[in-house]
Amino acid sequence: MSEERTYDFRAVERSRQARWERDGIYVARDDDPRPKYYVLEMLPYPSGDLHVGHAKNYTLGDAVARIHRMRGFNVVHPMGWDAFGLPAENAAIQRGIEPETWTLDNIRNMQRQVRLIGTSYDWTRELATCLPDYYRWNQWFFVRLFEKGLAYKREAPVNWCPVDKTVLANEQVESGRCWRCGAAVERRNLAQWFFKITDYVERLLAGLDRLDGWPDRIRTMQRNWIGKSEGVTFSFDVENVEAQIEVFTTRVDTMFGATFVAVAPEHPAVAKILEKMPKARHRVEEFAASLKSKSELERTQLMEKTGVPTGAYAVNPLSREKIPIWVTNYVLAEYGTGAVMGVPAHDERDFEFARKHGLPIAQVITTPDGSLRAPLTEAFVEDGKLIASGEYIGMKSAGARRAIAARLEAMGRGKTSVHYRIRDWLVSRQRYWGTPIPIVYCPADGTVPVPEDQLPVLLPKGVQFTGQGSPLANDAAFVNTTCPTCGGPATRDPDTMDTFVDSSWYYVRYLDPHDAAKPFDKEIASRWMPVDQYIGGAEHAVLHLLYARFFYMFMVDQGYVTGDDEPFTRLFNQGMLLYRGEKMSKSRGNVVGIDEAVEKYGVDATRLFLLKAAPPEDTLDWTDEGIVGRVRFVQRVWRAAEPLAVAARSVPLDRLPEMRGDAQRELVRALHVALDSGKSETETHRFHYNVTTAKLDELINQLTAALRAPDAADDPAVRYVVHALPIVLAPFAPHIADELWSLMGYEGSVHLERWIEPDPAALAVEEITLVVQVNGKVRARIQAAPGIAEDDAFALAMREPTVTAQIDGKQVRKRIFVPDKLLNIVAA
RNA sequence: GGGGAAGUGGCGAAAUGGUAUACGCAGUCGCCUCAAAAGCGACCGAGUGAGAGCUCAUGUGGGUUCGAGUCCCACCUUCCCCA
After folding, report:
1. Is the CB of A172 under 7 A from strand B?
2. Is residue A708 part of a domain?
3. Total number of domains in chain A
4. Are A242 and A321 in contact (CB under 8 A)?
5. Residue with CA nearest B33 C1'?
6. A473, A500, A527 — which closes off a domain?
7. Does A608 share its domain with A507?
8. Is A613 (CB) below 7 Å from strand B?
9. DSSP H stretches of helix in A684-808
10. A221 CB and strand B closer than 7 A
């Protein structure tokens, strides 16, 4: 009909957002007396355009923030930009745009888009990590870490990405490939800056045990990444050569089964051996040369395990047995000690190697019953009972490990030790678009950190981007400087910091974002920290989330902030958003842009779809068909509520309305079911608002049905539900909710209102459906008053022909009664 | 190879060990309309039956239980992490 008023979502959404902005309703105050709640989404990289995949993440965080605000918390919900990084530099090389220009343009656009989806961020706290206001504190932290011996420079074999032309941290190498560009990573020896995260391994591990608000998956990944293993380090003498070869093993109980020692070609003992073994020199050097160009990936995974004998023998310190020393491709110099003892009988890799090269396989562990005997067809890697092991025969693996370790220690040959897989965090990057490392090298004073009053070391503008070499290293005006200590000529470190340094502490800067004298105020930060709910994808499990924990522990240790040393109390891993079966991304060309979606369907409908289509931790397929259901929902809300908006206010929300009949009770119940769902999904931190939105559907279906009654407009129950509608919709469809609230004549925003507490009286039902089972199968459903007694229920059940038919001729053995739910009659 | 998560209608999915398939999409039918769209209403797992019903169905096969989508074991498939 022409009279039908359709809801103009474009106009309403625009005007609501303008009002929120004008009134600053999402600004968090430090002195607010209500309990604090810090909800944070991982800060985005400003790649240029926001797509609906980003929107999925922010819509969930926003619903969590809004519902907490309505439930009486002082919510801080900030947003900013992880603005340093390679794409900006690549744009500069390819298109001649300054990285800063490219980045700031992108930020402007994405800021507009994040606002466009109706998020409730406190923009007064916005930050961009590429601005000197921010990165000067990266430098400040670097110097503090340096002073404490936690930042150091050393030459080491490092991961070099030949495409991005920079080194990478271990965490940024995935299966031997660069995490960003996918190129096979090479090994290079370079002098680089490291942060000593290894000093914190035990605390990082211990903290994980307490983080029960984190997914187990992520905790396990971090534990595995840290890779703690306890074992023994001991050394072999080399026969007739002045050298020792140190090895680490977690299975010292198998040491009588060692039939060879495998070393990396670069191991220092190899050179000494070759001096004595000239005959072997040629084949060893040839072998070493063949590996020179191979990446770590190839050596440890792609290539067959192979090697050549050096001709020298190691002496097993316990058995005095002589075993050959082999140079192999699968032992790497920079892992562990660069050498391993080869126990083919009890290690799969050694078994494979021994088979190939005809080395003996000596079984020294058998199953507890002693049944497992040579010849072995595969390595037996489990613990068991020792055989062929001198005085340790008959011991169990665990006991033998202790006994042998003690013996080696007593001999002065070894000691129990703990090894970790994690290595120190390499933070130098040979790139331009990052935080300059605040270090000066002086011929007289050596390595000198830039003093605080000379920070920031500004990133120079107008440098040349050729794609060849580091732009800062080529910039003489930047590199050449004077020594802060003696004033003589000196040079700056030409590298920039890993951008993960930026994101290691940004969540504290948000709390005091404009402080010009320090990174943040201790009192303010301590009041807001830790982050109560952190939201982001699982891809950062061993990168950002590990670095940030380390950084925060350091900050707590230094007294920059007080309280627990874990920064993120709860972590929620959002599922990915797929489109046509693939991850949505620019490079795949399958992006649904946010502007497009908002223009076509509206913000509220888009948000509701992202919440409704799947639980938030699941991957979600974006479909253009599914969202029409949410567009319809928004229109249905409007058609039901708008005509009654003014009248609805006459029925107060602080108590249940007059309910004239069952229909009214059902309608009011539907409202309270939805209120209850929103509350419990939030309090349990499950955030399954897909269920809450289904309850909203049921509510609107009920309301639409109720409005068909002739006197519906005057019905207090109808008015009450319409009056409450903006509140229950507010976290999920914030625009239409606020618009309706205004139509009701309220001056303030619905987003500053209190969530209505679900009322048990409203949730209660007049009549329950009791399921009657016979031998576990549903045979009847009977309507009864809540609280019906078992005997009464049984009597009713025995009047149902479908029940008695099943019992006929049998004896009732047992009755199981679940009050108000079910009666199971067991008959045989 | 090791570890983890998941598998439910045509599709997205719901379900404290207690009515499997809520809610939405798609579809079918009806009302409204000159017609269509929109809207409103009804139906919508499979088989069987005139019908009340009955049988089967949550990847496959076992098990625990009065009762299993849910817990346990094995297997298959997919995804993720580590090597």
Report:
1. no
2. yes
3. 5
4. no
5. A1
6. A500
7. no
8. yes
9. 689-706, 716-729, 734-743, 760-763, 790-797, 801-807
10. yes
Cα–Cα distance measured from residue A183 to residue A181, given in angstroms and rounded to the nearest whole number:
6
Strand B closer than 7 Å to the CB of A562? no
Q: Are residues A298 and A394 in the same domain?
A: yes
Q: For A704-761, what is each residue's pLDDT tens digit?
A: 999 988 889 999 999 999 999 999 999 999 999 999 999 999 999 999 999 999 999 9
Chain A span 668-707 residues with beta carbon within 7 Å of strand B:
688, 690-691, 693-694, 697-698, 701, 704-705
Spatial contact of A656 and A667, defined as CB atoms under 8 Å apart? no
One domain, residues A469 and A346: no
Q: Residue A1: pLDDT band by 50, 70, 90 thresholds?
A: very low
Q: Domain residues for A130?
A: 9-137+501-587
Regarding whether A435 and A409 lie in a shared domain, the answer is: no
**pLDDT of amino acid A2:** 33
Last residue of a domain, one of A763, A785, A802: A763
The CA–C1' separation of A662 and B18, in angstroms, is 27
DSSP annotation of A305 reads: P
CA–C1' nearest nucleotide, residue A694: B23
Q: Please give the ipTM for the structure prediction.
A: 0.94
Give the domain CATH number at A398.
Answer: 3.90.740.10
B35 C1' to A816 CA distance, Å: 60
CA A89 to chain centre: 26
Return d(Cα A489, Cα A441) in angstroms, integer: 9
Bases on strand B under 7 Å from any protein CB: 3-5, 12-16, 18-20, 22-26, 38-41, 52-55, 66-68, 80-83
Whether A190 maps to a domain, the answer reads: yes
The pLDDT of residue A736 is 97
Strand B close to A614 by CB, under 7 A: yes
Residue A211 within any structural domain of the chain:
no
Q: Is residue A212 part of a domain?
A: no
Q: Tell me the pLDDT of chain A averaged across its residues.
A: 90
Does one domain contain both A541 and A636? Answer: no
> Mind listing the pLDDT tens digit for each residue in A218-232?
888 888 888 888 889
pLDDT of residue A3: 39
Please name the nucleotide lying closest to A175, CA to C1'.
B83
- Residues A496 and A506 both lie in one domain: no
Tell me, in Å, how far CA of A776 is from C1' of B49?
24
Is strand B less than 7 A from the beta carbon of A581?
Answer: no
Sign of CA dihedral A480, A483, A488, A493: negative
> Tens of pLDDT along A15-52?
999 999 999 999 999 999 999 999 999 999 998 888 88
What pLDDT score does A300 carry?
A: 57
Contact A309, A245 (CB under 8 A): no
Which range among A48-52, A377-381, A438-442, A625-629 has the greatest average pLDDT? A438-442
- Which residues contact residue A88 at a Cβ distance below 8 angstroms, ignoring those fewer than 6 apart? A99, A100, A102, A103, A433
Which tokens go with A219?
């905790």
Q: Is the CB of A783 under 7 A from strand B?
A: no
Q: What's the confidence (pLDDT) of residue A256?
A: 94
Look up tokens 């497992």; give the residue: A372
A229 touches strand B (CB under 7 A): no
Q: What is the CATH number of the domain that holds A618?
A: 1.10.730.10
Same domain membership, residue A434 and residue A384:
no
Are A354 and A414 members of one domain? yes
Residue-wise pLDDT for A451-479, tens only, equals: 999 999 999 988 888 766 788 988 999 99
